[in-house]
Design brief:
Alpha-Beta Plaits; about 300 residues; binds L-homoserine; 10 helices; four-stranded antiparallel sheet; Ribosomal Protein S5, domain 2; alpha+beta; 11 strands
Amino acid sequence: MVTAFAPGSIGNVCVGFDMLGLALAGVGDRVTAKRTGTAGISIAEVRGLDGEVHPSLSTEPDQNTASIAARALWQAHGDSTGIELLLRKGVPLQSGMGGSAASAVAAVVAVNALLPESLPHEQLLPFALEGEKYASGGLHADNVAPSLMGGLVLCPAVLLPRMMQIKTPTGVSSVLLHPEMQLDTAKARRSLAKGYTLEQWLSQQAYLAGFITGCAADDHALIRQSFHDVIIEPQRSAAVACFDAVKEAAMKADALGASLSGSGPSIFALCMDSNAPHVASAMEQACRSSGIECQSWVSPMTAPGAHVEDSQ
Ligand code: HSE
C-alpha cells in the first residue's frame, strides 16, 4: 500500500499559455494505492481534507483523473492483478490550481511504486496527461509537469514528452490567492479566440523569452518587464470579478507581476520572499473588498514535486 502526495500548481505562469507551470507548496492531493485480486482500477473512496466523503467527485473509474491516469500506467506496465485507489482531495475544485493534474500525478506516483518494475519519475508524465486530457479537454502539461517535477517547468505540447526545468530566480516566491468561486477550465478553453495578430504573437514570444532569461539570470527587473500576457488574460479576466482589484493590489505592494493562475479564478503574483506576507495580505484585502471570500498560499518557486509519503 503506497500513499503519494502531488502539489497543486500555477498553469501558464502569465507568459507561457499551456507550456509553463509552477508548483505550489502546502496544497495538493493525496492518493493511496493498494493491490486487489480483481483486475482493473477502482476507486474505493474520495474524501476532502475534512475527512468527509467528497460531495461532488465521482468514484466512477471512467470519470476521475486519478483512476484514468492510474489505469493508463497499469495497463502499460502493471500485471494481471488490480489496484484500488483512495483519493484525498486537497486542491479546491475548479480553482485554477491544477487540481485535476494533482490527482492524476499523485495516482501515477503511487501506482508506479506498486509496478513490477517502477519507472523513472519523469517517465510518468504521459500517463498523468491521460487524466488531465479527460478533465480539460486539451493536451497541455503546464499543471501535470510542475506537479510531477516541482519548481518551474517548461513543457510545450510540440516537445512532449520532454519537459525542461527552468532555474528559478533567487529569493522569489509565489503568492496564490483563491477567491471562493469556481470556473470550468474546459469551458474557458473552448471560449478562447482561435486567431491572433502577428503583433500579439511577437509580444508574447518576447515576454516568455524575457521571463525565462530573467529567471535564469536572477534579473528581477527583466522578470518584471516581461510579466505580461497580451493574449489569454484579457479574454479571461472579466470572468473573475475581483481580478483587476487583486492584481492592482499585488502590484501596489511591489509584486514583480500578477496574473490568472491557469484559467482562473485563482490569481497569483511573484514577489521577493521577504515581501510575500505583505503581497498576500494586500491581495486578500482587495478580494474581500470586492465581496468575495478567499484563501492564499505562499510558496517558494522551488516547491517540490510529487513524492511517495508512505509505503507499507
Ligand atoms: N493552460 C491551461 C489553461 C491551464 O490555461 O487553460 C488550466 O489550468
